[in-house]
Specification:
5-stranded antiparallel beta sheet; 5 helices; 5 strands; single chain; rod-shaped; membrane; transmembrane helix
């Protein structure tokens, strides 16, 4: 057996300690990659759900519903069924359906659907009959909060505990 030199006696656990220190950073990075991957997947899903609802609204511009679980033959039903992984509530805070009359520049928002009152809310100078017409732009906007899956990032103070996810799409009313 070769003699143990004094230089290697104090280094027996060095590799294990170095691995333990580096492994913590590695796992934090892996959790961050996972969290942001799920966040971006949720954002894409919300945008696609809004696009699906806007396409449906183009041919069914007044198919509204304020039910918590709306039927699939409503604008909100198309939106919520398309956003399965994202928990989107059918209320004015999370879902906005706006109607925009084309004009000079970006156009004018002439009204929106309110789930709270279950009715169309027209802007000043407009009615539902003058706003919800073929050629008007229907914009569906989704907003929800994504809570991070890994608490390790929050515990280390490296990121917030939740992120805002928005998705929107617009289509011309066809009827």
């Amino acid at each position: 057996m070769p003699p143990i030199s004094r230089s290697t006696v104090g280094q027996r656990g060095q590799t294990t300690v170095e691995f333990a220190l580096v492994a913590i950073l590695l796992f934090v990075m892996l959790f961050a990659i996972f969290d942001f991957g799920v966040f971006f997947a949720g954002r894409i899903t919300a945008t696609n759900a809004a696009r699906s609802a806007a396409r449906y609204a183009a041919t069914h511009p007044t198919a509204w519903s304020n039910a918590s679980s709306p039927a699939s033959n409503t604008i909100q039903g198309r939106l919520i069924s398309g956003a399965v992984p994202a928990a989107i509530s059918n209320d004015d805070t999370h879902v906005t359906i706006s109607y925009i009359v084309p004009g000079v520049g970006a156009g004018t928002t002439c009204g929106h659907y309110s789930a709270a009152s279950n009715s169309f809310v027209a802007a000043t100078g407009y009615t539902q009959a003058t706003c919800v017409v073929p050629g008007s732009l229907i914009q569906v906007h989704v907003h929800y909060i994504y809570t991070l899956a890994s608490p390790a990032l929050s515990a280390l103070g490296l990121s917030p505990t939740s992120l805002t996810v928005d998705g929107s799409a617009a289509e011309l009313e066809e009827r």
